[in-house]
Amino acid sequence: MAAFPLRIGRSRSIWEDGTLEEILRLEFPSRDGGVDLRPSVYLVETHEVDRARSEHLVGRLGPPLPLAGVDLDLNGFVPPTPSRGTGDFEFTNSRHAELLLENADQLRDVARAVQAQEPRRLGRSLDSVMSYVASRLAVDDPEWVQRMADAPKWKKVLSKWLASRPQVH
Amino acid sequence: MSETAATSGTPKLAYYRTALQGEQSVDTTTADRPRFDRHGIDEFNWLARHDPIRLAHLTLTELNTDPVLLSQAAGAMASSAQGSLMTNVLLKLTQHPRPFVREAALVGLIPFYGSSVDARDRLREMASTDPSPGVREVAGEALLVL
Fold first, then answer.
1. Which of B105, B137, B100, B141 has the alpha carbon at shortest distance from B122?
2. Over the stretch A120-168, which tens digit does the pLDDT of each residue have?
3. Quick check: helix, strand or coil at residue B77?
C-alpha cells in the first residue's frame, strides 16, 4: 500500500460554499496573511490516517480543533519533500514533509482538485480522534501517557467523550 | 455581511462598540507592538493576547467584508483572556451568513462556553437548526465535550 500526503484541514464547512480563493486562503494560509507555498503534510498509508491526525491535533493543539476540519489527500501533485517534524510524537515527526510549490497558481491547482474531487476530502470526527487516543492509553503507550499528563484540557475532553459513549454490557 | 448587519446587535455588543470607540489608538501607542504588513494569523494571535480590544474593533469594522479574515480572527480569539468581550464578538459572528465563519466562531467560543449561558444556548441552537450540515456537526461534537 503506497503512502500519500495527508494534509490536516482547518474547516469543515468551507467545502460547502467556499470559493476557490477562500479555500486557498483558509486551508493553506501563511501566518502573515498570504498563502503557504510550502504546505505541511504527513506521508501516511490509509490505515495510518487516524494516527497521524490524532498525533497532530492532540499533540500540538489545545481543544477543540479536532472538532473542525476535513483532512485532505494531496496525492499526485508536487512530490513531497521530507522535512522532519518537531512535535511530541516520533511517528508524525518522521512522516512530516512539505509540498514545495513554485507559485500560487500551483497551490490553486491543488485547491481546485480537492474542491472538485470529493474522495480527496477525508472526513474527520471527534469519535475518530478520541477512539484512537483511548486505544493508545489502553495499552499504556508512553508517548500518549506523557502527552495526556501534560494536557489536562485534553484529559477532560477525553473523559467527557468516554462518558458520552453508550455503555456496553 | 453588510455593514448594517455587522454593527447592529445586542445591547451588550452595542456597549462594547461604544467602549471600543475610545480605544482605537491602543495598539499604535504600544512600543513593542510587532509590525504586521497585512492582516493574518500572526497579527490576530498577537492582538488576542496583547490588545483584544483592537482585535474586537478590527473584527467589527475593517475585517467585516472578508470572511476568511473573520474566520482567522475568530480562531485567535479563543486564546484571549478577555472572555466577555470576545464572547460578545464571537456570538455576533455566529450569525454570519457564511457557514465557515459561523463554524470558526463556534470553535473560537469553546473556552468561553463555561462562563456564558448565551454562548451555550447559541451552541445548542446551532447544533439543531443551523442550515449548514458542517456547522451542525461541529456544534454537535462540541456539545459532547463541553
1. B105
2. 999 999 999 999 999 999 999 999 999 999 888 888 889 999 998 877 6
3. helix
CB B19, CB B57: distance < 8 Å: no
Q: Do A13 and B134 touch (CB under 8 A)?
A: yes
ipTM of the complex as predicted: 0.92
Task: Cell numbers for B123, please give them.
Answer: 451552541
Find out whether A92 and A55 touch, Cβ atoms under 8 Å: yes
B99 closest CB neighbour out of A13, A63, A164: A13
Cβ of B100 under 8 Å from any chain A Cβ?
yes
Q: Which residue of A has its CA nearest to B109?
A: A64
Question: With an 8 Å Cβ cutoff, is B67 touching chain A?
Answer: yes
Between helix B83-93 and helix B67-77 the angle, nearest 10°, is 150
pLDDT tens for chain B, residues 1 to 146 = 333 333 333 444 444 444 454 444 444 445 578 889 899 999 999 999 999 999 999 999 999 999 999 999 999 999 999 999 999 999 999 999 999 999 999 999 999 999 999 999 999 999 999 999 999 999 999 998 88
Q: Give me the residue label for grid cell 475610545.
A: B22
C-alpha grid cell for residue A88?
511530541
CA-based diameter of chain A, in Å? 57
Q: Helix (H, G, I), strand (E, B), or coil: what is residue A80?
A: coil
Nearest to B100 among A18, A31, A67 (CB): A18
Q: Which of B42, B68, B142 sits opposite A32 (nearest CB)?
A: B42
B99 close to A (CB below 8 A): yes
Flag whether pLDDT at A59 surpasses 90: no
The answer to whether residue A152 neighbours chain B at the CB level (below 8 Å) is: no
Q: Count of residues for chain A?
A: 169
CA atoms within 13 A on the CB side of B25: 2
Q: Are A57 and A151 in contact (CB under 8 A)?
A: no
